[in-house]
Amino acid sequence: MACLSHLQLQKFQEDGFLVLEGFFSADECTAMQQRIGEIVAGMDVPPHLRTEFSTQEEEQLRAQGSTDYFLSSGDKVRFFFEKGVFDERGNFLVPPEKSINKIGHALHAHDAVFRRVTHSPKVQALARSLGLQRPVVVQSMYIFKQPHIGGEVSPHQDASFLYTEPLGRVLGMWIALEDATLENGCLWFIPGSHTSGVSRRMVRAPAGSVPGTSFLGSEPVRDNSLFVPTPVQRGALVLIHGEVVHKSECNLSDCSRHVYTFHLMEASGTIWSPENCGPLPLPQAPANTRAALPRAVHLEV
């Protein structure tokens, strides 16, 4: 089951995404949810580091210019929050466990439960069936999509933030730990949009610059009629090509939409852009990779 059939591989190559229902068991999903509950219960984030997460370009630049909390999270486990969950002093206006947008970006490196999932035999078999020769995990996140306040993630391409030369070397693995529905913010894709390159790139500014990042290019206005909704059941794994355009809507329902997601990069013959927003090199960076491979910071649905 972890290996793709010829027809599945063909569909992924044509569409830029592929749904694998039932890839993870209910027990595996529960283990990840229980572990994240323990992490949240033990979180201690000083008020001045309570960073609201946004996928809107102006808000990204404004928030990141005031702190390096986001930009330096590539090799750490850090907490990012929804809008409107703090008062002017940084105190919680909602229960802390209901305030978090995501936790990132190195759960796979620092937590045993998420490390086992990320490097599980079936994930390795899946990577091999996709033809990856030297896959490297560049980042991981747990995304909550909280009931009623889980924010919209605007249309984007992962390679805008995880840029490589050549393109086509980044692959997202998006694991539904709860049912993802039209009501609670499932993924939407533009099938075939991975064949036209990237429209913009987030690049890291020189040290000490404000803001800490900028964008090259801009995100074009997308025709909403081109997006296809992709609701999935708990335990599904969605493969996401690095250049496919995707988004998710606000969660206005009573149900959360928990997800664990991580990104792989084919390291063989790949140049990782030194302008990506991950400052720290991976110890296992392949010798033939011209730029050190950081655990990268990324936006995700």
Précis, in short:
The protein is an alpha+beta fold. It is built from six helices and 16 strands.
Q: Main traits of this protein?
A:
301 residues, alpha+beta, Jelly Rolls, eight-stranded mixed beta sheet, disordered C terminus
Q: What is the tally of beta strands?
A: 16
Question: What percent of residues adopt helix (DSSP H or I)?
Answer: 10-25%
CATH first level: Mainly Beta
Strand order of the largest sheet: 1-13-8-15-5-4-3-2
Average pLDDT metric: 86
SSE pattern, N- to C-terminal:
HEHEHEEHHHEEEEEEEEEEEE
For the termini, the CA-CA separation is: 25 Å
Total of helices = 6
Largest sheet: 8 strands, mixed
Computed Rg: 18 Å
What coarse outline follows from CA principal-axis ratios? globular
Q: How would you sum up this structure, described in words?
A:
By secondary structure, the chain is an alpha+beta fold. It has one domain: q2cbj1_9rhob like domain (Jelly Rolls). It has helices spanning 6-15, 26-41, 57-66, 107-110, 112-118, 121-129; strands at residues 17-20, 51-52, 77-81, 100-105, 135-143, 153-156, 164-165, 170-176, 187-189, 200-204, 213-217, 228-230, 237-241, 246-248, 259-266, 271-272. The strands form 4 sheets. Strands 1-13-8-15-5-4-3-2 form an 8-stranded mixed sheet. The protein has a 4-stranded antiparallel sheet with strand order 6-14-9-12, with no helix packed on it. Strands 7-16 form a two-stranded antiparallel ribbon.
